[in-house]
């Protein structure tokens, strides 16, 4: 099979220039116009599912069922953003009329609205060939915001990336989007060069801590730094209180194994550690459930090799014991380890680092105070989970207050794998989970990353953007503050 070449410098220059030239026209379209274009992309991807899913299967080792569901999620979120555009409230249009009698002195006419930041560079992820890749949430939210997108494809699925990009480009063109709104580029150095280019006004990334941090540093070291919204790494700790273990310990053990081993542990929300009271008595259940999970090939050989190296390093830490050791010869089977809080805290560098793959650690705590100290040891995470009963109320409250400061999503009596595409979802967290905990990469609030506020003072109606005019031609929500 012919290898797909990296984007040449000349091709990258063309993509960046066309994106820059398209920015004003694309960003000034009405939300209703852009909603129609975003829906056209979703329709085109759905229509091409019979072609795209087999391509993804060939390049990712993921199953047809998993990929079909993921493509459905991808087009769902595109349509969800189209609904945001239909509503128009995302622009946060505010009109504050002039007031000569304002208590602090005469106040001018002030009008504030959010505008697109300009061309956005998106780095696709490996573990979701659709939902976090070419047509994923970063692309969907940037296009919805009115920003042209230059998409740096992931090397794990280049053919799928190119074909998906062709479908998106055609759908945008046929629905009337300005020429140059979307481009797919390939190559490691290509992404770094694009990130340094002054025509790129923001970037989004999903991947590892080392790669994400390197790109984040580039974005911030430019002569004009730009926002870099990176999702890097997360351990997603789970704490089970004593009352919960007494009431439903076996159920918690089975749910945990399902969560950490699903999709071969290649999810950013995989629970990396489960904290149990020292007398939990669930070792046998945990081991049996882990051994019962079938081996699954990882996305590619590079990730498989990285997993094997990290697994060996964690397993060799003194005080860490193997509960179930999965094979890595023909596919990758789950590996489950156990240790105690004292060992964890003494080996933070080795044990409090994400393992991408089906490995997790059960950590026993001898007292509630020890569990609280363990919770305080974590850096930022996407999620933190607590299993508790009414009898655990005081302990649960003390853990929630600690975990809230270290995670973007708190779960109660559930599992972190599975991220709903919803207006209330926050998929982000303190560093190193993400580079800016204030923003999400999943859900409708993801559009906020690619907008910036502008206030117009005493600007004549004819020169105001449509979103701020008194006649409100776009018919969007306007918050109006008129003088009393």
From TrEMBL:
Transferase found in the keyword field: no
Span of domain Aldehyde dehydrogenase: 2-429
Keyword Transmembrane helix in annotation: no
Keywords of this entry: Oxidoreductase
GO function term, MF aspect, one: oxidoreductase activity, acting on the aldehyde or oxo group of donors, NAD or NADP as acceptor
Signal peptide residues on this chain, from the entry's feature table: none
Pfam family, one: Aldedh
Top-level division of the source organism's lineage: Bacteria
Cross-referenced PANTHER family: ALDEHYDE DEHYDROGENASE-RELATED (PTHR43353:SF3), SUCCINATE-SEMIALDEHYDE DEHYDROGENASE, MITOCHONDRIAL (PTHR43353)
Name the UniProt record assigns to this protein: NADP-dependent aldehyde dehydrogenase
Natural source organism: Saccharopolyspora kobensis
